[in-house]
Amino acid sequence: MADTDIRAEIGYCERTEKKPYFYANAHEKDFVPLKPVEVELRDARGLDTDLDREGFTLVQHRSALDDLTDLDAVKRVHAPEIVELIKQVSGCDHVQTTPFGILRFSEKSGSNAAHDNSHPARFVHVDMSKEAAAGARAQTAPEGREIIRSAQYNVWRVLSAPPQDVPLGVCDYTSIAPGDLLPCDAIFDPLDGSPEWGFGNYLLEYNPDHRWYYYSNMHVGEALVFKTSESDPDRAQLMPHGAFDNPLAGPESPARISLEMRGTAYWFA
């Protein structure tokens, strides 16, 4: 066991008769039946993980943009960088990004109320249900090309100095049984007052076979890339993930700031 392997509580949920749901901002309205479990999280640094097997990998990647909290600049400069990064790690032919970035802050920063969808997700979830993801991939597919495969990716990086007080844990796709996934609804309630919208999602029920990982002491010059959907049933389909308190980070550790960028990859015939 490495010095940076840890044990921490992970935000599992329990199965109930009522379908869970959660909001991007108004978490006081969530129905998320949490049942946390303490698990071992291995430090994945140095491990040979694969996007199509375990569903995640760490890459060295530095943006030309100095301030990745400037979301207008992120849209102009960083989104095209993410297109090239996803092409590089996946070998795909085309990438359609979600051009806006999502900033998240650990609670002790006091910054959550000023930003849309900025809370770290303390419950394990998958970004989209299989049905919702397949619909989204079809919606952004380039016209006039025969598509033989498509997949969605999340590119997650920290903007704050290590150690992260609230890192991101990921669960090895090969350790998940289909029955572990709990269907739920993700509801987006924008702070600008525009209409609510949502789609299907998953929470995760505890299974002792789950294998959890994180990357210790991440920095801005690297990115955690993980799979969120996939059309090929023989490859990793999705990546349950969630935030947790780092027992190696003392009270003086800086508050986590992170940036998520998302993109859909397509392979042509």
Calculate the terminal CA-CA distance, rounded to whole Å. Answer: 45 Å
Please, how many domains? 1
What's the helix count? 2
Helix content: 10-25%
| Strand order in the sheet with the most strands | 1-3-11-8-13
Main pleated-sheet profile: 5 strands, mixed
SSE ordering: EEEEHEEHEEEEEEEE
Radius of gyration: 18 Å
Q: pLDDT under 50 segments (min length 5)?
A: none
Got a strand count?
Answer: 14
Large-scale geometry: globular
Structural class by sheet pairing and helices: mainly beta
Give the overall average pLDDT: 96
Portion in beta strands: 25-35%
Task: Describe the protein in words.
By secondary structure, the protein is mainly β. The chain has one domain (19-268). It is built from two helices and 14 strands, in the order ββββαββαββββββββ. It has a five-stranded mixed beta sheet with strand order 1-3-11-8-13, with no helix packed on it. Strands 4-12-7-14-5 form a five-stranded antiparallel beta sheet. A four-stranded mixed beta sheet has the order 2-9-10-6, with helices on one face. A hairpin with an 8-residue loop joins β9 (181-188) and β10. The mean pLDDT is 96.
Topology:
Elements: E1 6-10, E2 21-23, E3 37-43, E4 56-60, H1 71-90, E5 94-105, E6 125-126, H2 130-139, E7 147-158, E8 168-171, E9 181-188, E10 197-204, E11 212-214, E12 222-230, E13 241-243, E14 257-268
Parallel strand pairs: 2-9, 3-11
Antiparallel strand pairs: 1-3, 4-12, 5-14, 6-10, 7-12, 7-14, 8-11, 8-13, 9-10
